[in-house]
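User: Fold both of these, please.

Assistant: Here is the first one.
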Amino acid sequence: MSAIDSYTDLTRAVSKNLAPLRTHNAEVMQGFGALSKAALAPGVLDEKTKELIAMAIGVASRCDACLGFHAKALVRLGATPEEFREMLGVAVYMGGGPSLMYAANALAAFEEFSAQPA
C-alpha cells in the first residue's frame, strides 16, 4: 500500500478539514459545489466517463485526496477494474514516471473502496 494507510480515513479527514471553509468561505464552497455538479452532470459524456477523466487528472496532478474521492465515486458508478486500469494507462502516458507512482496509489484506493460493502 502507499504512504496513505486508508483512503477512507483520508477522505473523511479532508471532508472534516473542509468544514471551516464551508462556514467561513460559504460562497466559494457553494460555487465550487455548483461547478462540480455542472461539470459532472451527464451530457454527451456520462458521469462515469467524467469521473474517469477526473481521476486521471488527479493521478497526473498527484493529489492524494482526489484519488480517494474519485475512486469512491467510480466504485459507486460501477467502474470496472478493467476500465480503471485502462484510464491509469492514459494518466501515466500523460504524466510520465511521477504519474506511474500515483497510478499505483489510485489503484490501491479503487481496490479499497471496491472491497467495502455497497
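And the second sequence with its predicted structure:
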Amino acid sequence: MSADDRIRLIATDLDGTLLDPSGHVSTRTRAALDAARAAGILVIPVTARQPIGLREIAAEAGFDGWALCGNGAYGIHLRTREQLFASEIAVPVQQRIARELGERISGLLFASVREAGEVFVAQDGYAALAAHGDHKRDPETMGAVPLAEVVATPSLKLVIRHSTIAPPDLFAVLATLDQDGFAATLSGAPFVEVMAAGVSKATGLAQLCARLGIERSEVLAFGDALNDVEMLRWAGRGVAMANAEPEALAAADVVTGSNAEDGAAIVLERLLAG
C-alpha cells in the first residue's frame, strides 16, 4: 500500500475474520485495532450479527461506535443506539418466499429479525434446531409462532433453515425463485440469510461512508464468506483471510493469514508501519 492510499476506515467482518476460532479477539488483534484507532482510523464491524451478538464481543474489540448489522441491512450506533438507516423485506415478498420455497422443500423453518435487531421471532420448531451460538441468543427466548406470523411483519433479515438440508443446498434452491424484492446470502452460519433487494455489506458500508464523508478508496475491508464478497469488491482494498470461501478469495485484492493466525492484525501492523 503506497503513501497515496490513505486509509480512513477499516470495515471488518467478525466470525471467521476478526475473531479467532474460539469466537474471541486475540491480544495481538486487539493491539492492532487500538493502534489503528490511535492513528485516527475508524474501525467498523460489518457483520451478519445483530446488536445482541455484537455486544458479546464489543468490549474485547473496543467497538463503541457505528456498526453495520444484518449483512448491511441497517446501521446502528452501539453507544447511542441511533439508527442510521434500515432496509426491510416487504411482507408480500416474505410470504412469497415462504410459499414458493415451501412448495419445493418441505420441513423448512423461518425466523424474522426486527426492530433494530432486538426482536427475534421464530417459527414453531425453529428453537429446537438452534444453539446459542447461531444467533447469540438463548433458544428458549426465541418463541414459537406459526409461519404466518413470522412473515406477517417486515424483517431486517429473514432466516431459513432445515433440520437435514445444508444451507448451500437451500441457497441453491432459493436462487431458482424470482429474486424480485429480496437478496440472499450465506455467512457460514447453519441457515440462509435473506435481506431486502439490493442489500449487502457493500451497500450498508456505502451509506455509512457517505454519512462520514469517506471515499471508498479510503476503506480497507476484511472478510471470509460469501456475504463479504460485495464489500471486498467495493472497498478500496479488500482483504480475504486464508480460511475464506473461494468467492471471497476471488473478490479480494490481498489474501492474508487465517483468523487463527491473526491475519487481520498482520495487515494492520504493516499498514501502520507505513
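The longest helix spans residues 91-104.
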